[in-house]
Input
Amino acid sequence: MARQFETASDPLERLGCIRLLREALKGAEETTVQAARTADASWAAIGECLGVSKQAAAQRFAIRPEPTATLAGETPESPRRRTGSNVWEVTSPGGRTLLRIRRVAR
Output
C-alpha cells in the first residue's frame, strides 16, 4: 500500500491509500499496545514510545470493564423511569422497584 501511495499521481487515489494505511496502522498500534501491556510494560513507557503522556496512552488504549450495577440487584439494562413530576424509579428486569427517588421542594 505504501508503494502504491508513492507511485500514485492522482490525489484522490493517494487519499484512498492514506485511509487504508491509517486503518492498518491503527489496528497494528492497538494490538502492539495490548501486547506491551501483556508483557508488563508500563503506561509511562508506552506513552513515551507514542509521544504522549502515560495518562493519554491509558485513556486511549485501556480495556474498559463492562458497566456494573450501582445498586444491589440493578443491572446496566435496568430501566430508569420517571413516574411523576417529582419521582424517579429504578426497577429490576422483573419489574420490582429497587430505588425510588423523590425530589423535595425547597
Summary: Helices lie at 2-7, 11-38, 43-50, 54-61. The two ends are 66 Å apart (CA to CA). Residues 33 and 97 are 43 Å apart (CA to CA).
